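Students often ask why we bother encoding 3D structure as a string. The short answer is that it lets us treat folding as translation between two languages. Here is a chain of 145 residues written in the first language.
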Amino acid sequence: MISEQGIVKRTIGTKAWVVTTRSEMCEACASQGACKVLGGGKQMEVEAINAAQAKPGDQVLLTLENQSLMKLSFLVYMFPILALIAGAALGQKVGSYFSINRELASFGVGAIAFGLAFLIVRKKDKKLEQTGAIIPRVARIIKGE
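And here it is in the second language, the structure alphabet:
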């Protein structure tokens, strides 16, 4: 489980916006879309599910499940590459079957597969975002205001 500390800036319903310091783990995080860098520096604002019912000014602990992070990493990084490779291999077969330049067919089918993979990733990302699977949670209040 990945965890970070931060201070709640504001809350609306079941969501909390937490100001935290950008760490090295942020670079590898697949849910960077839920965060907003403030002023181009190390501080960032993270949208989180307010499970601890924190209030503005509270110092809190944010968590993100490793399993969610691993699934997202595979989806974002590996799936498009595997689609590209499979598309290129299919293009080689299609090229020789239809008497088309095999390299050109490999490039074309690989590019199409790569593009389709990104469309699938985008659709899946929106679905995961709606379910809250990739959004950090306010696990507990460390220090109340």
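Translate back mentally: The longest strand covers residues 2-12. Keep this in mind for the problem set.
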